[in-house]
Amino acid sequence: MFDTLSESFKNALNKIRFNDDEKSLLKALEELKKSLLKNDVHHKVVKELLKNIETRTKQAGIGKQNFLNALQNSLNQILNTNGNYGFVYAAKPPTIVLMSGLQGSGKTTTSAKLAYYLKTKNKKVLLVACDMARLAAVEQLAQLAKQIEVDIFKLENALPTEIAKAAKKKATDEQYDVMIVDSAGRLAIDESLMQELKSIKNILEPNEIFYVADSLSGQDGIRSASAFHQEINISGIILTKFDSDTKGGIALSIAYQLGIPLRFIGSGEKIPDIDIFIPDRIVSRLMGAGDIQSLAEKTASILDEEEVKTISKKIKKGQFTFTDFIAQIENIKKLGSMSSIISMIPGIGNMAGALKNVDLDNSNEVKKIKAMVNSMTPKEKDNPNILNGSRRKRIALGSGLDVSDINRIIKQFDNAAKMAKRLSSKGGMQDLMSMMGQMKGKI
Questions:
Q1: 238 and 274, same domain (yes or no)
Q2: What is the mean pLDDT of the segment spanning 48-58?
Q3: Average pLDDT of the chain?
Q4: Is residue 210 domain-shared with residue 331, that is, in the same domain?
Q5: Residue 385: which domain range?
Q6: Which of 118, 216, 375, 418: disulfide with 399, CB 3.0–4.6 Å?
């Protein structure tokens, strides 16, 4: 995400060659203006941002670092709106969330993503199917609830208001922490949609009303969000489809023009691909500095602390097995798409686009490894050293692979295990950095 905006900032920065050169500053600002407008940032936002950057840079003294600082501070100022970020729980559970938005914005999927995020926080979540306008919506939500192992409440042949009332009673009686209500959407805003939402709102008295906005909708999305806000008073916005193809300008425009806090962003198609929208962290990604804090929080919510300690000990002792490897592949999948993970790592966020289509479920190499491991006995999985020629032939036959494939995978696994053991030893990371430095010098 933000790939094109980040590149725009770099291009603008490169226009500043000398200190105290006002002409270079004007060139940088002009370059930035063109890029921001091209990336769907509203002209009023562009004007405000450029004015702030110019003022701050001149006050500190024209130069690359001061321009960079001014850009960062100005972005923070634009994105910081009054209100909360992330998820805020009610003083008395359940916290009731009403999801709203136009049809096709990804509202139903986002409801499930939010439920999954809360589940990783050890919250008891109830999904409620109130979208009776779209026939497939209830079934879609039911399938997603089953996939993430979260409870769902649905009623056939009932009005959305009746469903909402019954769901609220269930959530209260059965002590759910959070209730997420997927409401109906339309292709365009109409009176019946708004009346239905108002009726549901009156019954639920929700703690939060989230508007789900398609990041690709541009200014139309902002106008729609504004209309919803006038009718039902939105408390936060969730941006969907915010992958590397998105220009990114809507994030700046929606915060500045509407003054409604952005609460989450959907950064990929997978259920775990949802991140809290915290302005300074988002600006850090925009500036190419990654977001290690969010990555650490995401990892901590997925990985078991004892499991991490056990794996670390095994790696240090060179005892990492195929069983451990498959378990870690499953853990990585829980973090979300590779592109969203990479975007959080400082210095290599620009690789996110290249890794956009990396799928650990459909990768041919991972499929081969899984087929090989599934053809092993428990003893072979935990003791790769016993894999002699006859065992490898049997595994190849059972997995549908060639013996050469088996030999190659085992060799790669052995080399990776040795490298991991080396890096886990004292001074291991220094050795790696030194090696990378030598390679860089040869490129």
A1: yes
A2: 88
A3: 78
A4: no
A5: 298-442
A6: 375
CA angle 333, 336, 337 (to 5 degrees): 95
Q: Do 129 and 22 belong to one domain?
A: no
**Does residue 86 lie in a domain region?**
no
Report whether pLDDT(275) > 70. Answer: yes
**Token pair in block for residue 160:** 């959305």
**Phi, psi torsion values for 362, nearest 5 degrees:** -110, 0
Answer for the pair 133, 164: CB distance below 8 angstroms, yes or no.
no
**Residue 43 in this model has a pLDDT that exceeds 60:** yes
**pLDDT-based confidence at residue 436 (cuts at 50, 70, 90):** very low
User: Which H or E element spans position 212?
Assistant: strand 208-214
CATH code (residue 39)? 1.20.120.140
Last residue of a domain, one of 244, 278, 312: 278
Residues 112 and 73 grouped into a single domain? no
pTM for the complete prediction?
0.65
Question: What's the average model confidence in pLDDT over 99-123?
Answer: 91
Q: Are 112 and 148 in contact (CB under 8 A)?
A: yes
The pLDDT tens digits of the residues spanning 387-413 come to 999 999 999 999 999 999 999 888 877
Whether residue 238 contacts residue 273, with contact meaning beta carbons closer than 8 Å, is answered with: no
89 part of a folded domain = no
* pLDDT band, residue 366 (cuts 50/70/90): confident
Q: Output the CA–CA distances (angstroms, integers) from residue 68 to 75, 204, 284, 292, in the order listed.
A: 11, 46, 12, 20
* Rounded distance between C-alpha atoms, residue 199 and residue 306, angstroms: 48
63 shares its domain with 153: no
Sign of CA dihedral 219, 220, 223, 229: negative
Asked if the structure places residue 289 within a domain, the reply is: no
Is the same domain home to 351 and 261?
A: no
The residue from 79, 109, 139 where one domain ends is 79
> Can you give the pLDDT at residue 200?
94
Spatial neighbors of 252 by CB under 8 A, at least 6 apart, are 36, 41, 42, 45, 49, 75, 78, 79
Q: How confident is the model at residue 343 (pLDDT cuts 50, 70, 90)?
A: low
CA dihedral 314, 316, 318, 319 (to 10 degrees): -10
What percent of the chain clears pLDDT 70, i.e. is strictly above it?
72
